[in-house]
Amino acid sequence: MYKVTRVLDLHDPDDELTTAMAVKRLRSAADASPAIATLVAPTLPGVRNGGDLLVHLQFREHDDWLRSRSAIDEATSDSSVRSLRSVEYIGATGDRAGRRSWSPQVYRTLLLNVEDSASPEQLHHFERATLAMPQHIQAIGAWQLSRVVHVEGGSRYTHVWEQEFSDLADLHCAYMFHPIHWGLVDRWFDPECPDQIIADRVCHSFCASTAPLIDAVEATNPHARAR
Fold it and tell me: In whole angstroms, how large is the CA radius of gyration of the chain?
């Protein structure tokens, strides 16, 4: 599965009419593409460096994205858009915790940058620790950790950590304040901790969702090489 996520910042996000028109334009472009799953929605209050609009597209093949890219580029470069960040990646290690009929209400994505100075061992431990969270945090209904293969927009990102939640309380409380989150995983992000390998300015973005987007993926070698 080839995935594309774009985080858009608008010139005037408080202008409801302009935002609604941008969402309509983007949804039209997404629906006209060969994407097998799409999500275009305003971000919800509480995002951090997470933009005003979130666009998420899933394609069976990279070539499907290439055939539709120009139309998506045009839709995401409208005069109402101040800036955008874009990541492309191959859906890697993830699961749905057996909830295949579950209907999530919140889709969350975290775009992050592992520093070049991180050793392969540090990177391995970070990825393993991140993927261990769903075993302990029951509020995570689905999840996927992938390595970025292409990035645009002036920010460097190496990983995408996606989850689905039943509501915002599950994200803000059950997930963020769980001991495994702040006791084990946060150390990779904390500049005051010697284990830190994640650069500052992560993109923590989330929006309303009405259908599952994250599929279970089994892979012996789940990450593609960056290109």
Answer: 17
Query: Which domains does the chain possess?
Result: 2-208 (3.30.70.100)
Pairing state of beta strands 81-90 and 142-152? antiparallel
Segments of 1-128 assigned E as strands = 2-10, 37-42, 53-59, 81-90, 93-95, 106-112
Cβ-proximal residues to 102 (8 Å cutoff; 6+ apart), any chain = 96, 141, 142, 166, 212
SS3 62: helix
How far apart CA 112 and CA 161 sit, in angstroms, is 8
Give the rounded distance of the alpha carbon of 183 from its chain centre: 23
Rounding to the nearest 10 degrees, give the CA dihedral for residues 57, 218, 109, 120.
-120
Q: How many degrees, rounded to 5, is the angle at CA 127 between CA 47 and CA 140?
A: 50
**pLDDT tens for the chain, residues 1 to 227:** 899 999 999 999 999 999 999 999 999 999 999 999 999 999 999 999 999 999 999 999 999 999 999 999 999 998 999 999 999 999 887 776 665 556 779 999 999 999 999 999 999 999 999 999 998 998 999 999 999 999 999 899 999 999 999 999 999 999 999 999 888 899 999 988 898 999 988 999 999 998 888 874 433 333 333 22
The DSSP 8-state label assigned to residue 218 in this structure reads -
* φ, ψ of residue 58 in degrees (nearest 5): -125, 130
Non-local (6+) Cβ contacts of 20 within 8 A are none
